[in-house]
Design goal:
The chain has about 90 residues and is mainly α. The chain has one domain. The protein is built from three helices and no strands. The N and C termini lie far apart (about 80 Å).
Length: about 90
Amino acid sequence: MTRWQRFKHELFLLRHDFADWRRSIRRRIWNKGIKLFWFRLWIRRDEFHPSLSTDAEAMMGMNPEEMAAYHDDIARRRAIAHKRDLANEAAGKK
C-alpha cells in the first residue's frame, strides 16, 4: 500500500469514527434523554401510541441496569394505557 493509499484509508476510517461518535452523542442526548423524558411526562390514552414502543436507538446507549429499568417502565406504562383503553371501551359501549 502506498503512502497516498494509506493516507486515504486512514482519512476514511477517521471520517467513519467521527460519524459513529456523533451518532452515539445523539443517542445519549436525544433518544435516551430528551425523547424518553417527553414520553414519560404522561401516559397516553391509546395503548398503541408510539411512545409505548421500545426505542432501539435509545437502548443502544444504555447500560444493563438502565435497560432493565427502561423495560420495567415501558411495561408499567403499557399496562396503565391498556387498562385505560379497556375502561374507555366499556364506558363507550354502555
